[in-house]
Amino acid sequence: MKRIFLLCLMLILAASHRAVKAQQLPIYSQYMFNTLEINPAYAGFKQAVHFTSIFRKQFNGIKDAPQTAMITGDMPIGDTRLGIGLKLVDDRFSILQSLGAQGSMSYRIEGDYSNISFGLQIGAINNKTDFSKLNITNPGDPVFAQNLNTLTANFGPGMFFNTDKFYAGLSVPNLVRTHLRKTDVALSEYAVKQDAHLYLNAGYLITLNDNFVLKPSFLLRGVKGIPLNYDINANVFFREAMSVGMSYRKGSALVGLLDFRLIPTLRMGYAYDYNLGRLINFGRATHEIILRYHIPFEKDTLMPSYLF
């Protein structure tokens, strides 16, 4: 019960500020295997019909801790340079739940030794709370008088560049600043807002020998009013059979990564986050599982699809 109280207390304290800001979009440790999650320009990149599902459970051992489930699908449109994608997200944390759906479209410009794609994402998110799950000492408190239930639309652009060994992406998937809740409490206005999130990621392939490839990469996250956050990653691939890796998330977690091929068209990955932040004494571990299934087209690609 003490752990539940601490989590709820964090939410209540956050709601008491005049302007509440947080990194509201979910964070995934295996984003490097599902770039569509952060960049709409990646839609159709792999020249195959591609499906991905992710389940992430944070702070193992704490009841009602954050958990996220996501399903994505994308594919190129015939022989055109267009790609389309769809993303469905269910993100939950104690009394909060966010359900979202976003569609993506990309346009690819092909060069002799590189490609560059531009994309746009459009979608909507339903954010809601259930205050009945809280043990409220003052039932008349106006902060908890009405549950939050809002539907907000948003859109955002992205750009993705790659050669046979290097890639880089820049995106702002939720460009429009939205107000999730705005009201007056004790003559003092407060608001719950969602600011634009900016993502910058890049990676490079280093061939160690005929069997092993090293891929160092990074992801930089930026949200207005919040210090920059970053992931630094390194994955080692053994042919197309499997990969192992490590990630460091600034002041937050040390992550172990494992990915392997079940059958030629299906891969499975697992990430274990060891928490380094303030909740280390309450929940040390975060678990994340990813499944990736693809139906390849009979078309030459610039690189093996499992790398980027």
**Could you tell me how far the N terminus lies from the C terminus, measured between alpha carbons in angstroms?**
43 Å
Which CATH architecture is right? Beta Barrel
CATH topology: Porin
**Poorly predicted sequence stretches spanning 5 or more consecutive residues:** 1-23, 183-190
CATH class: Mainly Beta
Strand coverage percent:
over 45%
Order of helix and strand elements from N to C terminus: HEEEEEEEEEEEEEEEEEE
State the secondary-structure class.
mainly beta
Strand order of the largest sheet: 2-3-4-5-6-7-8-11-13-14-15-16-17-18
Number of helices: 1
Q: Biggest sheet, in brief?
A: 14 strands, antiparallel, barrel
The helix content, as a percent range, equals under 10%
Rg estimate, integer Å: 20 Å
CATH H-level superfamily: monomeric porin ompg
User: How many structural units, i.e. domains?
Assistant: 1
Mean of the pLDDT scores?
A: 83
Shape: globular
The overall strand count is: 18
